[in-house]
Automatic annotation (TrEMBL), chain A:
Record-given protein name: ABC transporter ATP-binding protein
Primary location class: membrane
Family classification: Belongs to the ABC transporter superfamily.
Cross-referenced Gene3D superfamilies: P-loop containing nucleotide triphosphate hydrolases
Keywords tagged on the record: ATP-binding, Cell membrane, Membrane, Nucleotide-binding, Transport
CDD domains in the cross-refs: ABC_NikE_OppD_transporters
Record domain ABC transporter: where: 7-258
Membrane topology: Peripheral membrane protein
Superkingdom field: Bacteria
One of the Pfam families matching this protein, by short name: ABC_tran
InterPro entries, per database record: AAA+_ATPase, ABC_Ni/Peptide_Import, ABC_transporter-like_ATP-bd, ABC_transporter-like_CS, Oligopep_ABC_C, P-loop_NTPase
PANTHER family: DIPEPTIDE TRANSPORT ATP-BINDING PROTEIN DPPD, OLIGOPEPTIDE TRANSPORT ATP-BINDING PROTEIN APPD
UniProtKB/TrEMBL annotation, chain B:
Domain of life from the UniProt record: Bacteria
Annotated keywords: ATP-binding, Nucleotide-binding, Transport
GO MF annotation terms: ATP binding
Family of the protein in this entry: Belongs to the ABC transporter superfamily.
This protein's name: ATP-binding cassette domain-containing protein
PROSITE patterns: ABC_TRANSPORTER_1, ABC_TRANSPORTER_2
Pfam families: ABC_tran (PF00005), oligo_HPY (PF08352)
Domain ABC transporter: 12-255
Length: 344, 316
């Protein structure tokens, strides 16, 4: 299937200056985003998933900077953008974002109608009655009832799930090409989460959006993603289509991540757990960052960073285990059962 | 589980918990009853605002109970109780909190954090004994004794949660209320802490009340589970039974809402939404009844018949 690239990240390195030290948050990442797909970036906190998308939106903290590499979008290299004026052409207009916490991303002093309308006026150039009508339409699109009455209400009059719907309406109001959802449902209850994910999927179809989900919840990923990129310590270690990454994972970190899910555990027995903690990003990482926690680590893992080995046309993994010279290693037992039992 | 006895450690009898006074009263917990047996892990699940934490806090005696009573070893722990009993409860019932970032005193060293309970209850005879106890508790949760001289900010989230667990353990409790103990932790750390909790349970014969909203974890770790909705328990039963045969529509909706980490199953799943108006409770008010052995559900007469028919149909 020939797909059109909408965004292309090439050899991106992002660093932060912190108390006189330099921290490397993103270590030489390349990633393509295809038009109309939904890509999930999975990783633990500190893996760099949020930093990566913030760099696409030009929202890096002041002490963070792009050290090298490119972000190609719409014929421009976003990594070269310096001024706020440059970014305003992209941010909101072409790439919009839904953040984690709907309590803090809305203005408590403005009615929600005005907040959505602001976006409509600014990005779609509508005025007066047209803008009002469009706002009501958006409210309906995100599943809010009695829109005329709701238009004049303040954020505190809405529940968490409803507030997240409004944040989504604001993001969609800009008619963006790419919608970034940064942990869109972690602050919500499961029943509400299911509804919001459904809403996002519907909107993606309706507005022909390309979406990036950032999450650590593999359940959410299974529900919404076409493709998955797994991040560890600032690097993408495995990328592939959802079924490939779930049922034919190749990197030991992905194995560990899936194996430690309680759904795969057997009651009364130890749950598979990853020993140790993620590496310190202030220090230079040699070889495969996961090697010290990896029971399958080879000698070379501590010396040289593995390249992306091709598993299929869409599936790549950064582990020396895929090298033709590497010993044959099979994934943990629990995982094999998972691969086999559900993999068809 | 065969290991768990039928000895009731905690009995909760028809408790109501009310916040506010006068016209602004809000009933957070409405006529809730359940027992927790010695040695088991009892799960309490529900959405935010359902009252699950409030019940946990009532057992800790942090929220007062308006009606009903809570018994520990068959003796009431709320209302008028003797000083010795009060002290004993304080020591025997401990809590592990949700957010290890917020629940540790930032200005105190680990040594003090872990031994604060000992100091308050004078549970040691010499300084030497106190230090020994702290050391032992830290080692038990997989930390090094040297960590006692450090401050909380020097630790990662998982380590902090271990400190929170050590603080509970040092009191030699019988019963621990664990309120969302792993929801603030990263996926790879969650499994470590879950394993730690199960190992401690075995070694020390602990009983847990495990409060959570993540059903996959509840299913893995608990023996019995109660589902709570708007201050009332709607269903209670052995965890596997409950997950395999949910009767109450809210339990069913909750179970379908949890995303499963399996793209094939997840995409075939049909989402169920709970609509409280399916119940006709005006004429026929619901009761919390035992529909089959050990399986309780909130239902009126008509629904009880339906649920029984379902169970017969499934050949249970």
């Amino acid at each position: 299937m020939e797909q059109e690239k909408i965004l292309s990240i090439e050899n991106l390195v992002i660093k932060f200056k912190l108390r006189g030290q330099t921290l490397t948050a993103i270590r030489d990442i390349s990633l393509d985003l295809y038009k109309g797909e939904s890509l999930a970036i999975v990783g633990e906190s500190g893996s760099g998933k949020s930093v990566l998308v913030k760099s696409i939106m030009g929202l890096l903290d002041k002490n963070g900077y792009i050290d090298s590499g490119q972000i190609i979008f719409d014929g421009h290299d976003l990594s070269k953008f310096k001024t706020e004026a440059d970014w305003l052409k992209v941010r909101g207009k072409k790439i919009a974002m839904v953040t984690q916490d709907p309590m803090t991303s809305l203005n408590p002093l403005k009615t929600i109608g005005k907040q959505i309308e602001e976006s409509v006026i600014l990005h779609q150039g509508l005025k007066g009655k047209d803008a009002y009508e469009k706002t009501l339409q958006l409210l309906r699109d995100v599943g809010i009832h009695e829109v005329e009455r709701r238009y004049g209400q303040y954020p505190h009059e809405f529940s968490g799930g409803m507030r997240q719907r409004i944040v989504i309406a604001i993001a969609v109001a800009c008619n963006p090409q790419i919608l970034i959802c940064d942990e869109p449902t972690t602050a919500l209850d499961v029943t509400i989460q299911a509804q919001i994910l459904q809403l996002l999927t519907n909107l993606q179809e309706k507005y022909l959006l390309t979406t990036i989900y950032i999450t650590h919840d593999l359940g959410v990923v299974a529900k919404v993603a076409d493709r998955i990129a797994v991040m560890y310590a600032g690097d993408i270690i495995e990328v592939g289509q959802t079924n490939e990454v779930f049922f034919n994972a190749k990197h030991p970190y992905t194995w560990a991540l899936i194996s430690s899910l309680p759904q795969l555990g057997i009651k009364g027995q130890e749950l598979y757990s990853i020993k140790g903690t993620p590496p310190n990003l202030f220090k230079e990482i040699k070889g495969d960052a996961f090697a010290p926690r990896n029971q399958y680590a080879l000698k070379i893992d501590f010396v040289e960073r593995p390249p992306f080995f091709k598993v299929s046309d869409t599936h790549y993994a950064r582990t020396w285990l895929l090298d033709p010279k590497a010993p044959q290693v099979s994934p943990p037992e629990v995982l094999l059962a998972f691969f086999k039992g559900e993999g068809q | 589980m065969s290991k768990t006895s039928r000895e009731k450690l905690i009995e909760i009898k028809n408790i109501d918990i009310i916040f506010g006074t006068g016209k602004k009263q809000f009933k957070a917990v409405d006529n809730v009853s359940f027992d927790i047996y010695k040695g088991e892990t009892f799960g309490l699940v529900g959405e935010s605002g359902s009252g699950k934490t409030t019940i946990g806090r009532a057992i800790m005696r942090l929220n007062s109970v308006a009606n009903g009573e809570i018994l520990f070893h068959g003796k009431p722990i709320n209302g008028r109780i003797t000083k010795e009993w009060d002290r004993e409860i304080t020591q025997k019932i401990q809590m592990i909190f949700q957010d290890p970032g917020a629940s540790l005193n930032e200005r105190a060293k680990v040594d003090y954090i872990v031994s604060e309970g000992l100091i308050n209850n004078k549970k040691y005879s010499s300084e030497q004994e106190r230090i020994e106890k702290v050391k032992k508790a830290l080692m038990e949760v997989g930390l090094l004794p040297e960590f006692a001289s450090r401050f909380p900010h020097e630790f990662s989230g998982g380590q902090r949660q271990r400190i929170g667990i050590a603080r509970a353990l040092v009191m030699e409790p019988e019963f621990i209320v664990a309120d969302e103990p792993i929801s603030a932790l990263d996926v790879s750390i969650r499994a470590q802490v879950l394993n730690l909790l199960s190992n401690l349970q075995e070694d020390r014969d602990l009983t847990y009340l495990f409060i959570a909203h993540d059903l996959s974890i509840v299913r893995f770790i608990t023996n019995r589970t109660a589902v709570i909705y708007k201050g009332r328990i709607v269903e209670l039963g052995e965890t596997e039974k409950l997950f395999n045969n949910p009767l109450h529509p809210y339990t069913q909706a909750l179970l379908t809402a949890v995303p499963e980490p399996n793209p094939i199953k997840e995409r075939q799943k049909k989402l169920q939404v709970y609509d409280p108006s399916v119940h006709q409770y005006e004429m026929d008010p619901p009761e919390f009844v035992e529909i089959e052995e050990g399986h309780f559900v909130l239902a009126n007469k008509e629904e009880q018949e339906q649920y029984k028919a379902v169970l017969v149909g499934k050949g249970v």
